[in-house]
Amino acid sequence: MPLESATRAVRTGLVAFAFLSYLILIGIPGRIGGPALPVMALIAALFFWVKLRRESIEPSKEATGRGQDGFEGKPGWEIGPQAASNGSRVRELLSSHTGTALVLKGLLAGLTTGLLIAIVSGIIAAAMGNGIAIQPVLDKIVPLNAAALIGVSPGQIAQADVSFARFLLQVLLFTGAGILAALAVTAGSSDLTHAAPVGRLTRHLSGPTLTSAGRYAGIALPFVLLAYIAWLGLPGVTAFGTNEGTVRLLLTLIATGSGLFALRLSRPGREQLAVAVLLGLGVVTMPFILDQFQNSVMGLVFIFVMMGLGLNIVVGYAGLLDLGYVAFFAIGAYTYAFLSAPFSSPYISGLLTLLGISPESPLLGYWMALPVAMLTAAVGGILLGIPVLRMRGDYLAIVTLGFGEIIRLFMLNLGELTNGPRGILEISQPALFGLTPVDVTFGLLSSQGWIFLLALISSALVAFVAIRLNESRLGRAWFAMQEDEDVAEATGVHLVRTKLLAFAIGATFAGMAGQLYAARQINIFPENFSLFVSIDALALIIVGGIGSPAGIVLGALALKGLPEVLRGVDEYRIVTFAALLVIMMIVRPDGILPSARRRIQLADPDEPGMDSDPETREEEPGLTVNGDAFADGSGGREEQ
Amino acid sequence: MTSSPVKAQAAGRDGRASLKQFTRALGAAIVVLVIWRVTTVGLAEGYPASFWISQALNGLVLGGVYALVALGYTLVYGILFMINFAHGEVMMIGGITGFFALQFAQARGWMEGPWPVVVVALLLIMFIGMAASVLIGVTLERLAYRPLRQAPRLVPLISAIGASLFLQYSVLLIFGVSPHSYRKPALISGGLRLGDVFIPYTGAIIFITSILLMLALYFIIQRTKLGRAMRAVAEDRSTASLMGVDVNAVIVVTFMLGSALAGAAGVMLGFHNTVVKFNSGFIPGLKAFTAAVLGGIGNIPGAMFGALILGLIEAIGPSALGIPTEYKDVIAFTMLVLILIFRPTGLFGEVLSEKKA
Predict the structure, then answer these.
(1) How confident is the model at residue A375 (pLDDT cuts 50, 70, 90)?
(2) Are A168 and A304 within one domain?
(3) Which of A93, A300, A308, A316 is a Cys-bridge partner for A546, taking CB atoms 3.0 to 4.6 Å apart?
(4) Is A391–B340 a contact, with Cβ atoms under 8 angstroms apart?
(5) A21 within a domain of the structure (yes/no)
(6) Using CA atoms, how far apart are residues A55 and A61, in angstroms rounded to an integer?
(7) What residues of A are in contact with residue B157 (Cβ under 8 Å)?
């Protein structure tokens, strides 16, 4: 037993080392600069904390004989004994895991990580000191990071001017991190049964379980923030000294997000209505008080809210995983571009001269083009929908992905029609009765503010339509279809019509979003419509909570808004969100703000697993996998 | 009141029947259109026979590489019923690692040495690429897929998309945006000239190596105890575990085999395309998936032949249809869509079509 826990601790240290090496490789320490080593030690401490905490719960889990069964696990009936043993688990935990054992484990893990990091950075330093280039590519990043870790300048490494004490410091810091983490686990051990802080948090947020004071504070928060943002806009007022635009943008994002929570916190009925109206008024004034940059970011966020709401109809309501959603976005954008930009392809201008219209002037204004763009996108949706009617699940995902790529390749290569990679330039701006709002409001509303306002209004409209649709007969047909197609058909759902409507309506919303996007960008190029738009749209509805419009707004704020605030770390954006996607799928597949139905909408009816209560699922181990338990489980069954 | 569901059901059945007729008509129309286009445009261009032959040989080389990657998709799909979306990235990582191994070998001067040294060094480079891919593949399985084994099918797919992006952009952050170019050693940079047809040595080596690797895989699956365990798990996981097969170990080994083949493919694709970069695994990965679907996913010989066919179509298609070569990706994706519409079980039949539903 002691040997086993020692190996476990060493393994924890190794995993921490692997994780930190990854951070070193992607260049984090070099970016942090001076305090890189303590920050890395802090990250390691956090990791140790999570790991030790989990390990101290695990033994009892194994004692109940609950295997990590890979194939026919029925969490439903295995949860019973698990839940019943909660009381004994705490007792067992307190008796078997004394603080000293934990601290020893933490020490061992920290020592492993620290030693390995010291050795590796020592090797790099020695190599650099002797003039050995590590690798043509790596040596740009690694010495910088190694230097930051040892706490010297890269030049000092190259001159072999690194003392032994610096490596000792590394070892000590990481060992300290391990001990600290162990102490933290010991201190918090009485709370160990609550292994799902995320779950508790969302339970608070998704229902009014707070005290009334907390509730009112939550409701008041967005208004306070909005007032503060407005005050920040006054001449002569600055926030926290530097980078005012970014700070204000961050506050705007938080205000919008907390507005959603305020809506959830308010009591249904008159109170909720009042909060909603006030919030609506507050949000509508935002385009007038923000500056051009903040408005452009918020405009993008709400364009993606529209995208997310549309994709949510296809993926969340109808259960059809569409990875080529960008195609409809592109169709909307290009339709508007054709209609409103001075560039017209030889084909189109030929057609126009034939009809007796001058090809030089924009053909249609924004509002006239809107139904055209929506209709074109809807037709595109139906055209995609017809061939994939019989496909399900992952095949559908791949085919739609292929469809999206085909559209992009056509945009890129059909030079006569789409101007190829040079794009379509000078797309005209949406006007209001022939006037630009910038003139009407005497400059109070910037051009991007106008786009933001339009995006706000359109996404509110789209959200209304989406929510009403979901509650309609069609919405129930979608829900039935995603639960089980055959049963749905047997109970009278017309599958072909229902599926095609989902594709068409989703595509229509994407077309609207695309048109607004084209107006926002003024110039559009095929690379604006890469696969990443689809992935972003999918990621935001998954992160926010699939099937829940409020979650989608939250997801868009987090995925499209936050990266603009964190401009400096923009390059780590995709990596972070990709990792988040994986972790999200493992820990919380319902998203941050799950839909009211509280079901995993992606679920295939045939498979077990996700239909259990959400709380029980969070007890599953997350990223740390204990494969051994699986072997035990199957071995146990063999003996029977 | 009771009649309305019945009516709707009948309507649905009618809808299905008419849909079937519609897809059939569509398929016939597409075939006629392609034949018409090929005869009137492609053949009318009057390319010499040697042009077609060298295009076909190119296609076979590419098909061989696709086959190695497609096998990874098929193996994993056969056992776990999931699309390992990040498989193309596993291949790309093999290619990147191979690039650094090649640089190391070049710095040591091994590439200018006598031919046995060069051959051993090249093999070593391939093995290093394979080892890196295996490492990544197994890590991927453990971190991103194993915790989700009992989740609904789309959850691992989304996790795989995340993993794919994560790997791509990690490589971007670590090694930069600029492509890394493979420099072929002098020994294999030439080619063989047969009449008007030119066969580059790299092409021939790639084709032969991929055939050898595929034979090795076929031997492992058909003749060894491990292969029997893999087939048993693919057939019925729970029964296999009752028979004493360690399912977890088999899944890990499957990922190892698939990733090793992908790593070899990555290195060879590096030599073939002369460059690797962070996203150079994405499109080949999709193509290889297309190949796996073409042959019937889950079917190992099907994946091999599907890939060769796809390679041929991609190489010959643009000239035969008389369209620019930029559209070769469009041809591949269109193929994928068409196959999934008209013959979802692939040309050679999906081995496990019933269970995946």
Answers:
(1) very high
(2) no
(3) A316
(4) yes
(5) yes
(6) 10
(7) 321, 393-394, 397
Per-window interface: B 126-155 vs A, CB < 8 A: 142-144, 146-155
| CB proximity under 8 Å: A 166-225 to B | none
Task: Give the number of domains in chain A.
Answer: 2
CB A524 within 8 A of CB A334: yes
ipTM at complex level = 0.78
Those of residues 296-355 in A touching chain B at CB distance below 8 A are: 321, 323
In this structure, is residue A540 part of a structural domain?
no
Distance CA B347, CA B340 (A): 11
Stretch among A49-63, A357-371, B213-227 having the lowest mean pLDDT: A49-63
Domain coverage including residue A424: 296-530
Q: What domains, with CATH codes, occur in chain B?
A: 60-356 (1.10.3470)
DSSP A295-309: HHHHHHHHHHHHHHH
Write out pLDDT tens, residues A188-211.
654 444 444 444 555 555 444 556
Domain identity same for A53 and A166? yes
Q: List the helix and strand counts (H, then E) for chain B.
A: 13, 4
Would you call A73 and B150 a contact, using CB atoms and an 8 Å cutoff? yes
Chain A positions in Cβ-Cβ contact with residue B15 (cut-off 8 Å): 494-497
- Check residue A151 and give left, alpha or beta (phi > 0: left; psi -120 to 50: alpha): left
Q: How far apart are CA B262 and CA B133, in angstroms?
A: 7
What's the pLDDT at A302?
92
Domain match, A183 and A306 both: no
Q: A138: closest CA among A18, A39, A14, A21?
A: A21
Q: Which residue type does A536 have? A: D
Stated pTM of the model: 0.77
pLDDT reported for residue A72: 41
Quick check: is A198 in a domain? Answer: no
Residue A63 lies in a domain: yes
**Between chains, do B100 and A609 touch, taking CB under 8 Å as contact?**
no
Based on the domain organization, do A341 and A484 belong to the same domain?
yes
Verify that A182 and A53 share a domain, yes or no: yes
Q: What is the pLDDT, as a whole number, of residue B15?
A: 58
The contacts found for A389-394 with CB under 8 angstroms, 24 or more apart, are: A389/A495, A389/A496, A389/A499, A389/A500, A389/B19, A390/B19, A390/B341, A390/B344, A391/B340, A391/B344, A392/A485, A392/B357, A393/A321, A393/A604, A393/B153, A393/B154, A393/B157, A394/A321, A394/B82, A394/B83, A394/B153, A394/B154, A394/B157
User: A612 pLDDT exceeds 50?
Assistant: no
pLDDT at B306 over 80: yes
Q: What's the one-letter identity of residue B270?
A: G
* Domain boundary, last residue among A140, A161, A192: A192
| Domain closes at, from A192, A211, A235 | A192
**Cβ distance A543 to A555 under 8 Å?**
yes
Asked whether the predicted pLDDT for residue A301 surpasses 50, the reply is: yes
Q: Residue B28 to residues A54, A126, B22, B331: CA-CA distances in angstroms?
A: 60, 69, 10, 18
Gap between the terminal Cα atoms of chain A: 27
Share of chain A above pLDDT 70, in %: 69
Angle B282-295/B300-321 helices, nearest 10 degrees?
A: 110
Q: Which of A258-272, A420-434, B226-240: highest mean pLDDT?
A: B226-240
**Which residue in chain B is spatially nearest to A316 when comparing CA positions?**
B154
The overall average pLDDT reported for chain A is 73
Mark A416-438 as b/e (b = at least 16 C-beta within 10 Å): ebbbeeebbeebbbbeeeeeebb
Query: Taking CB atoms and an 8 Å limit, are A406 and B15 in contact across chains?
Result: no
